[in-house]
Amino acid sequence: MLFAGSSAEAQRKPDPDGDSVVARGEYLARAGDCIACHTAPEGRTFSGGRAMPTPFGTLYSSNITPDRDTGIGKWTAEDFYKAMHYGRFPDGGLMYPAMPFASYTKVTRADTEAIFAYLKSIPPVNQRNREHDLRFPYSNRQLILGWRTLYFSEGEFKPDPTKSAEWNRGAYLVEGLGHCGMCHSPINALGGTSQSDAFKGGLIPMQNWYAPSLTSNREAGLGDWSIKDITDLLQTGVSMRGVVYGPMAEVVHNSLQYLNDDDTRAMAVYLKGIAEPSPSPPASSTLPTSESSLLISLGKTVYDKHCASCHGTQGEGKPPHWPPLANNQSIEMQSAVNPIRMVLNGGYPPGTNGNPMPYGMPPFAGLLSDNEIAAVVSYIRTAWGNRGAPVSAREANELRSAPLN
User: Fold this and answer.
1) Structural domains in the chain?
2) pLDDT tens-place string over residues 256-294
3) Any binding-site annotation on 253?
């Protein structure tokens, strides 16, 4: 997704080493991906109003421009720190945890004040915040007290003395400003994640995309990736090992491409360090063996006709632009949501400074039936030594109505 506000002023690359606090704050705001939530499609930068559907109703992001009547123009640096660190408004009111204060609490006061200085420097926009549309009883903010008791631990990031400075910088960015755990951790029925499940992957609520585990090497764990392949993926959206699509493409476009080489490498070192060897589980499918065999046979026909020209007859791909499908972790995961959606909807990696004209994949939703979609995905997940399980036509049909952004 591209935002109307992400041109001109927002495309200028921030300078973290600039001689002003504002320049550093701009860089840190990019690292925190603030623009993604606080800018609505076709909206003014940071003026809020972006709808954020949740299982409990729809939240609308707030105006964080320095407008004195409708934004944060009357806030003090202390007010902003309390919002970031404690998840509270200046009057002490509780913020809904769609604001990632559970991650931002790790951000240092100096960095928080720099972000605030940057936000105070941008053009004010007079746009009132839209009321949230939450079902009862979730509209009662006092319930957030229970959520905070279960899932919120306040406190700035504490470096691990047994790790390198580079690893700790990466941890600070991934766990704190980057709030990567918001998507890459399983979310339970209360909208929370236990600390023991951090970065273990899960379905993103209301978006029907699966954010894979960052700890498991059979999902998105990067333990066997080179540092260069990881940094390429974070900075450009493409690498010799894979390509980002969906919500992750938005993160790369709005945030990660703007990080300097040192910070990108630090994130890569940290992400590689938390990955764990994870043997693939035995492939299991609810489909009868005979039906699976028919699907896979049909799938090869569909693949040879529509996919092999880009991804290769043996799934070898043409990296970095057309990713390999053989021995591809994202293809083999237990959840088949992402490969089904890619076949249905296609998509592009993000346009970035390092890859300004990305190659895309066409959608096949209008060309292939549910059976054909299920067949080709089943074939891809089981061919060339891949250890995924076949999928059903019902799964393909259910994802036809998934939101595209």
Assistant:
1) 17-151 (1.10.760), 165-274 (1.10.760), 289-401 (1.10.760.10)
2) 999 999 999 999 999 999 988 765 555 555 666 656 778
3) no
